[in-house]
Write a structure and sequence with these properties.
six-stranded mixed β-sheet; alpha/beta; binds adenosine-5'-triphosphate; four-stranded antiparallel β-sheet; single chain; Rossmann fold; binds magnesium ion
């Protein structure tokens, strides 16, 4: 067995004595899409930041290809994994192609050969080629999200020459996208995973798309992983009731479990402190 591209081993993270993530274990393997679902405040983004190396766990370990992620030089980590944060605000006026080119920073000089066409190719895969010359700050929310996705694709494409085993970590990548672009982005994610062998982790609030695209589903609640498995095992009425406090009613099986929100009923309880 090859070591996972990124792996959490009982990794936890606390702020002022409160555990935001309790000893969580998860392996991100090549060619597989893992989706994390869970309510607001469940610890999904915090866990993703642990897996990306942005946060350092105060218990347990995050390993990448068998070594502690903290031991990797930043340029090497940048070749191995790209990250799309939940919100990406920018303080300075950058052009779109400059943002995508940021995916090349940190290790650009070390990569063999040039980067000809990588920025353009990444923009095209994110359906953002027509935005290349625009000011990022003037883009719509969904357009900005596609440009951030293009930046991660650009980073992986360039880094692949040095680190052929890679991970892509996406925090709510389709939150601002229209239906067509949701599907287009998830199809591009699938191509990265199944076509290019990238280990993908995506935090998703759309449970139907999570079940449809994920090879492996992880449910988090209260800072803990509460269920893992293939979507048909994890996305059950009982799990959704327990984690999201919603009764889903009839749950049709349309090539996998599906939820019809218009037939759901909230279980009216305030969020626990
Ligand atoms: N630096 C911090 N200090 C204190 N509390 C924090 C900090 N960062 C996150 N939290 C809290 O930890 C919990 C988990 O946050 P996190 O961002 O991981 O949630 P999430 O599952 O990504 O939620 P969402 O679906 O809303 O994005 C939240 O209750 C949040 O308020
Ligand atoms: Mg979040």
């Amino acid at each position: 067995m090859m070591a996972p591209v990124i792996e959490a081993r009982a990794a936890g993270y606390s702020v002022r004595g409160k555990a935001l993530v309790h000893a969580a274990s998860l392996a991100l393997d090549e060619g597989r899409i893992t989706a994390i679902i869970g309510p607001n405040g469940a610890g999904k983004s915090t866990f993703l930041k642990l897996l990306s190396g942005e946060l350092v766990p105060d218990v347990g370990q995050i390993r990448s290809l068998g070594t502690d992620i903290g031991a990797l030089p930043p340029w090497r980590l940048a070749c191995r994994r790209a990250v799309m944060a939940q919100a990406s605000r920018l303080a300075f006026p950058f052009l779109v192609h400059e943002i995508v080119r940021m995916g090349l920073e940190g290790y650009g000089a070390r990569a063999a050969g040039g980067f000809g066409g990588i920025v353009e190719g990444a923009l095209a895969r994110a359906d953002a080629a027509h935005l290349a010359g625009r000011q990022y700050q003037t883009l719509s929310g969904g357009e900005q999200q596609r440009v951030q996705f293009a930046r991660t694709l650009c980073q992986l494409e360039a880094g692949r020459r040095i680190e052929p085993r890679q991970a892509l970590l996406l925090d709510e990548p389709i939150a601002s996208l229209d239906l067509c672009h949701q599907l287009a982005l998830m199809d591009a994610v699938r191509e990265a995973a199944h076509g290019e062998g990238v280990a993908v982790l995506a935090v998703l609030h759309d449970l139907n798309l999570a079940a449809h695209y994920a090879d492996y589903l992880v449910a988090m609640n209260g800072g803990r992983i509460v269920a893992t498995g293939v979507p048909s095992e994890v996305m059950t009425p009982g799990l959704i009731r327990a984690v999201f406090r919603v009764d889903v009613g009839a749950m049709p099986d349309i090539a996998g479990p599906a939820i019809l929100p218009q037939f759901c009923r909230r279980i009216d309880e305030p969020t626990a402190a």
